[in-house]
């Protein structure tokens, strides 16, 4: 494990932590994590041809601050969107920072994915980061303390544990926002994807859920079996994916949520999580004005997101899974990325 200075934000050092998995040689996983946004800047997994980069990342902290669409970040206090940037809680209307039109996205303009976290523990294969969000931060009630632990395990697994405690009831929905590309190509449309969910939460044009739970059978949203992400486009139907799936697994217990595979590299990734939902975003809006890692240009579909989560707009939808954390309790969200070749 190595810790080095990556840059400076608002007069404070941003550190980069390099983690290496327990295995040696061709089976080793290596990851670089920033204290800014708890970002996974780089992740290399084994493939039949050798080490394979599997995420999108940027080259400087200036590029992240100016241009990053949450590349590799931990987002919150409430990931995804809250309609009207407000919700009612215990008879009080909480008005949030609106940073996407009239709505809030990923916790507001200064959400957790754009903040400096502190290193509280580190080992060669793991690091724990912490962030304190004060009462009123981005409009949320209560003081909240969040921790994120990244741990590399055998075989070729990244375990991500997100925890939070609070002193007043408050919505909590943390998630990982990595952009995956398992073969280094410029377009992930040929990646094959399977999602362990038979239903989605349809949205309005501003991507706020309508409240309906709709089946995916016989629709372009049906990824219940492994198929190319760009299959609908091959049939000349334009389907920009940015939607929450209702997962089959029991919330609170680790269950498989998705399988992603590149036929080009032979790398497969299974995503396991304790969460009830999974946001699938196909990266159709990516248009980076600066180069990515190794000078790679990132355009539309350069990477895709699979974000384990509580449901978007949960505080405003009583029939959605509970997203309010009470004082004295711990919010715990665990996900694993399991790679194979």
Structure commentary:
The chain has 341 residues and is mostly beta strands. The chain is 3% helix and 42% strand. The strands form seven sheets. It has a nine-stranded antiparallel beta sheet, with no helix packed on it. A six-stranded antiparallel beta sheet has the order 17-26-25-22-19-20, with no helix packed on it. Strands 1-2-3-4-5 form a five-stranded antiparallel beta sheet, covered by helices on one side. A hairpin with a 5-residue loop joins strand 3 (30-34) and strand 4 (40-47). The two termini are 25 Å apart.
Short synopsis of the structure:
The protein has 341 residues and is mainly beta. Helices cover 3% and strands 42% of the residues.
Mean pLDDT: 96
- The separation of the N and C termini measures 25 Å
Contiguous helical run count: 2
- Give Rg in angstroms: 19 Å
Specify the biggest β-sheet. 9 strands, antiparallel
Structure classification = mainly beta
* Sequence of secondary-structure elements: EEEEEHEEEEEEEEEEEEEEEEHEEEEEEE
Strand-residue proportion = 35-45%
**Strand order, largest beta sheet:** 11-12-13-14-28-24-23-18-21
Runs in which pLDDT lies below 50 for 5 or more consecutive residues are none
Q: What is the approximate shape?
A: globular
> What percent of residues adopt helix (DSSP H or I)?
under 10%
Q: State the total count of DSSP E strands.
A: 28
């Amino acid at each position: 494990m190595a810790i080095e200075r990556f840059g400076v934000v608002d007069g404070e050092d941003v550190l980069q932590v390099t983690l290496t998995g327990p295995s040696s040689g061709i089976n080793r996983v290596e990851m670089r994590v920033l204290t800014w946004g708890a970002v996974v800047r780089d992740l290399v997994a084994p493939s039949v041809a050798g080490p394979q980069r599997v995420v999108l990342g940027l080259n400087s902290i200036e590029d992240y601050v100016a241009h990053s669409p949450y590349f590799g970040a931990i987002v919150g206090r409430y990931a995804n969107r809250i309609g009207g940037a407000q919700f009612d809680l215990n008879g009080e209307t909480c008005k949030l920072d609106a940073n996407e039109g009239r709505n809030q996205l990923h916790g507001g303009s200064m959400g957790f994915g754009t903040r400096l976290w502190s290193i509280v523990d580190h080992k060669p294969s793991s690091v724990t980061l912490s962030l304190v969000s004060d009462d009123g931060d981005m409009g949320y009630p209560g003081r909240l303390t969040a921790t994120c632990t990244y741990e590399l395990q055998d075989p070729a697994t990244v375990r991500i544990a997100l925890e939070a405690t609070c002193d007043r009831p408050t919505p909590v929905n943390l998630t990982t926002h990595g952009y995956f590309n398992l073969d280094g190509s410029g377009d992930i449309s040929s990646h094959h994807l399977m999602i362990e969910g038979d239903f989605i939460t349809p949205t309005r044009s501003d991507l706020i859920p309508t409240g309906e739970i709709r089946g995916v059978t016989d629709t372009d949203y049906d990824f219940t079996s492994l198929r190319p992400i760009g299959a609908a486009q091959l049939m000349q139907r334009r389907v920009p994916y940015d939607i929450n799936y209702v997962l089959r697994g029991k919330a609170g217990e680790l269950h498989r949520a998705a399988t992603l595979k590149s036929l080009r590299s032979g790398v497969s990734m299974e995503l396991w999580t304790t969460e009830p939902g999974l946001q699938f975003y196909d990266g159709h809006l990516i248009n980076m004005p600066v180069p990515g890692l190794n000078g790679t240009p990132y355009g539309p579909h350069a990477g895709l997101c699979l974000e384990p989560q509580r449901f978007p707009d949960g505080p405003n939808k009583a029939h959605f899974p509970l997203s309010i954390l009470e004082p004295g309790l711990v919010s715990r969200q665990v996900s694993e990325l399991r790679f194979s070749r």
